[in-house]
Amino acid sequence: MSADYHDHDDHHPSPWGPHDWGHGAPHNSFSPLIMSIGCGMFLLMLGGLFSFGEYDGRYLPMIFVSLAVIAAALIVWCRQDMSFDGSYEPRAVGVPFKNVQVRKVGVWIFLWSEMMIFSSLFSTYMRYRQGIPRCDTVFESGDWVEGVAVTCFEPASKLIASSWWHIAPGAINTFALIISSFTIVQALRWANKPVGSVDEEVRRKRVYRYLAATWCLAALFLTLKMIEWFIGFHVPEIGFLGLHEHDIHSLYSEGYLINNDHYQAHHYVDEATGAHMVANIQVSASLFYVTTGTHGLHVFGGIVGLTYLTYKAWTGAYNPQSAVSIEYFGLYWHFVDLVWVLVFPFFYLY
Amino acid sequence: MGGSAVSRRLALISLMAIAMIVVPAVTSLPSGISGVKDTGCNCHGTEADPSVTASISGLPSSYNASETYNVTVSFTGGPAIDGNANLGGFNLWVSEGTLATLDSSTQLWGPNEASHTTEGNDQRSWTLEWTAPVSGKDVDFILHTNSVNGNEGDGGSSGDMWAKAQVEVTGFGGELPEADPFKVLATLIVVSSVLLSIVVLYVFYRNNPEGFEWERFAPWITEWLTSTDHKKIGTLYFVQGLFFLGVGGIMALMIRVQLATPGAEFISQGYYNQFFTLHGTTMIFLAAMPLIAGFANWIVPLQIGAPDLAFPRLNALSFWLQPVAALLIFTGVFSGGGADTGWTGYAPYVVTENTHAGVSMWAAGQIMLVASSTLTGINFLTTMAVMRAPGMGWFQMPLFTWSILVANLMLFLSIPAFGVGLIQVFLDRTIGTAFYDVAAGGDPLLWSHLFWYFGHPEVYVVIVPAFGVISEVIATSARRSIFGYKSMVYAMAGIGLVSFIVYGHHMFTSGMSPTLRFVTMLTTMLVAVPTGIKIFNWLKTMHGGSLVYRTHTLWTLGFLVTFTLGGISGMFFPSMALDVHLHETYFVVAHFHYVLVGGTVFGFFAAIYYWYPKMTGRMLDERLGVLHFLTAFISYNALFWPMHRLGVVGMIRRTHTYYITTDDFQALPEWAADWNMLISVSAFLFFASNLLLVVNMIKSLIRGEKAPADPWGGWSFEWMTSSPPPTPSFDPHNLPELKDANEHVANEPSRLGQMFRRLMVDDDASEGGSH
Amino acid sequence: MSNTILGRDAYWMNFFGLMLLTLIEVAAVGADLSSAAEGFSMTERQLTLWILTVIAIPKFIMIAAIFMHLWGENDSGILTLTALFPAFFIIIMILFIGLTHPDASMGLPDWCRPGNYGL
């Protein structure tokens, strides 16, 4: 309990503001405290907003307040990082990561936990996919009675892969993520070009434009996801392409919902008798929305990061010395792409 | 000067006085039962008519708990005269206890409301049975009666009259009406914040009595709230861990009071369930883990010669998530319905609406703890992989650091499974997904798998750092280097690796895949091998050295005894046949308290006595320490040893109470009550003996002897710094260097090392940038 | 950053390759493979799953190797090992949690199920 707390005030001018990175790692920040409070508030209010599927709108304003608190914490965090110019980039000293940047090792270790998260989700998926009979198998076996819901597994791909139009948002998203992976490595490449080999203004523009393109593609991903889940879209009449005017329903309006224990679909009607099979598809829908939603949240996290990166690139802060920051974010972003490589075939196609 | 000190004290006292006045004002209680049951009257006619008199008879003036009384409700007067088609009806509502019908003239609308039946509407009096509650509260009886003329027109009720009667039966002293949960929550938050502020102010005042003013206080408190220094964060973790150790201990005491005598009703079943659930969650996640993180934060950078952790700001975030998570976990308790699922939170009960409302926030709080542990994992793994001082290879790392490395590796790789499981539970309970809804095809076993995939590594996460502490303490106390250093490292790594396979032994009775049961049975038995190696190494270290008996040495010896006993009792469980018998009994409770208290807590008490001088610069009182050890060790064994026997004769864990009547199939032998009483008394003694530690720490902080840099003669890096160490702990531009007397042997790369060396980045390659 | 594939820039080549593989995936789902499936004596769904799994593997490797710089850089070797470290734990999880479904005891061979040997 020494009273030496004011001895090194010069190292950390303010826990709110930019750091002096010349002294190495940061010393003080209000961000962790605020972010914890924001996260706690958010979870508390989410518990109030929904209770076993029942919605209570009184808690909605507080949800926004808690998100604002989290945003404030992020802004403090980013403000402190804005002054980082790459001059302080410690490297590992020992076996086996000798000479590799410390933050790069940190990002890879962080990706381990991401791998385990998605492994857990995929294990859940495999277990249920195996353990619960498929709805179309049950339907064909005739082992059902009209009006009594059967518990069976209905993969979302049954709806999504039913036509080219239904699969379009998911397929476009796949390409969007691949392109965004490409644009971010291009941003890294331009930031990395040796000083003197490229005009600094050209570098600034290229880096922030590539990052902005990545941002837009990520936003496109989430927009198309919302269209696919909740909104649906309209195909107009275009004669020379042979298109007929029709609506593509969202999963929501098709009744593919986490609380739907009386799911009916036109492909589960017995043509001979006209009887409908009714299915309890809650588990399959929960799996689909939570797994793809977790991936979507990672994309959203990427958007938050990209917002900061793009802004910083716009100020012209990236050069070969500080370009590694883009690379570290890129590792995360490519990982999100990798997960989509697995999610897309197993949740959208198969 | 004297005047200002007096006025400061006055200010503190008045602050406490204000708190005491404000607090009761916040705990306003609901105003009784007014309004209730006004709707219970399906009264004929609008106003009560004075010519009708309702009465309730058969009630005592004050009741005895759980006794049954026959209650007769009747009325006189009004239009009800003999010969009418119908005579009348009634509605009776009681605030406490349960009603039961005696014949077909009455029916129940619930446990506390009754009415007549169609058959019973040509009577003027009805008799019911009322079973008194155990709460001892005053009970209100509210009776409405209709006196009926039996005409058929106007729906049969014109000209009818009604009356109301109200009787109060006094209880036997339980004058505690239920409070509004949110007012209790608000009160507790106010109380805790006032107490916390007083404590913080007092600590600041003690620090420097002359400088007790806002200009100095503001930067001081800001420093603690915003610090990213590993030592300050370590201290914060430490304070949090000890605080919750006390909270969890008090819960355990409540449990033990309830179990002291058979058939006791000290706390109700609902509260009992909350107490054992939160006892488990608190002790594992809010006491043991922060204590480990506290020591890891303090000691690991010092031991490997690093100026700080790799990501100091993430480290601060790891810590601050914890107190907020603790608030969420306890939210349910404050508002009257804490989690009652057991710390394992087994599905499908955890996602049903029968659970207390607090379960949602219990899950939410643990999600935040998962985030905290993940960040801690990134930070420590990176730090240990990249920031070891020059000359310190993997096999020169002190064993405590090794234990933290293994523990963090296990925790970091297993906790995402738990996080995903918790998110599934949280979503099931909020937005209504159906992961564990059995009716929708959900599989409760999945939760057990995800939980124990994390949960079993987790219990090793809690014990392995204690191994590290013991290795450090025993080597220093025996004044020689640890025997079998490499085998110690491999043993820990082996335990870590195998923990991911053995987790299924928690689910032997759950109907899990038989193949998996076999695999986990064999691998679980395998765990005894590395653990045995460690114990033999410790014994051999003492054998070859000459032991100095300090307090931390005593705790270490205590650890060796109790942990070995706990390990042996653990070897009963992997045998599936035996497990079926012992499963869910007090034998299990005895086993894991022997390893978690006798192992982890003893290990960390040793660590407190060992490193406290380094952290604070003050020596602890050895005499108090020895007294603490002796009282705690004896009461601890008296507390947990009898549980083995109770478990073998079939005392079930997690149950509210037990019976010793000999004619009942489930009853325990009569001596079980005596053992339970002994356990409960010992529990209080154990709790009290640990207060000695608190007294010791506070006493030394204020007027302890100044500690030298190396009070015990240890030789790892942390003893090279001053006590307490400076900030940053080591000068980043002038790091310490580890030298080895046998340098040519120490730096000879092994075969694995040679392989790594081929993959490593050369010094010259990095200079030009890797791109 | 000077990596090339077939003499061309690695990022571009990787990008084109990924686009191509994804197109094949989408086409495999859309196309009618029932006659091809009969040739392998499996259902169309099984064949689709095989195609999707087989294509997912090279896509996975391409992104990790080129976009995540696990190929051709100084630190690629050690970071590849780092990236592969959780493999053991993932395999355990998939085996123990993902692939042991609730009715597993029904899938046991007859001789080790309850009800035999007069028990």
Topology:
The complex is a heterotrimer of chains A (350), B (771) and C (119).
Chain A: H1 31-49, E1 50-51, E2 54-55, H2 60-82, H3 102-131, H4 135-141, E3 150-151, H5 157-160, H6 164-192, H7 200-231, E4 233-235, E5 246-248, E6 279-280, H8 282-314, H9 324-349
Parallel strand pairs in A: 3-6
Antiparallel strand pairs in A: 1-2, 4-5
Chain B: H1 2-26, E1 53-57, E2 68-76, E3 88-94, E4 98-101, E5 106-110, E6 113-116, E7 125-131, E8 139-147, E9 161-169, H2 181-207, H3 214-226, H4 230-260, H5 269-304, H6 312-334, H7 358-386, H8 399-429, H9 444-478, H10 485-502, H11 514-544, H12 551-570, H13 576-582, H14 586-616, H15 622-648, H16 671-703, H17 743-746, H18 751-759, H19 763-767
Antiparallel strand pairs in B: 1-2, 2-7, 3-6, 3-8, 4-7, 5-6, 8-9
Helix pairs in contact in B: 1-2, 4-5, 4-6, 4-16, 5-6, 5-7, 5-9, 5-14, 6-7, 7-8, 8-9, 8-10, 9-10, 9-11, 9-12, 9-14, 10-11, 12-14, 12-15, 14-15, 15-16
Chain C: E1 4-5, E2 8-9, H1 10-30, H2 34-39, H3 44-67, H4 76-84, H5 87-98
Antiparallel strand pairs in C: 1-2
Helix and strand succession of chain B? HEEEEEEEEEHHHHHHHHHHHHHHHHHH
Kindly report how far apart the N and C termini of chain B lie.
66 Å
The assigned CATH architecture of the largest domain in chain B is Up-down Bundle
Instruction: Quickly give the structural class of chain B.
Output: alpha+beta
Average pLDDT for all residues of chain B: 86
CATH superfamily membership of the largest domain in chain B:
Cytochrome c oxidase-like, subunit I domain
Tell me the number of helical segments of chain A per DSSP (H or I, 4 or more residues long). 9
Q: CATH homologous superfamily of the largest domain in chain A, by name?
A: Cytochrome c oxidase, subunit III, four-helix bundle
> Strands of the largest sheet of chain B, in order across it?
5-6-3-8-9
Main sheet summary of chain B: 5 strands, antiparallel
Helix content of chain A: 55-70%
The CATH architecture of the largest domain in chain A is Up-down Bundle
Strand residue percentage of chain A:
under 5%
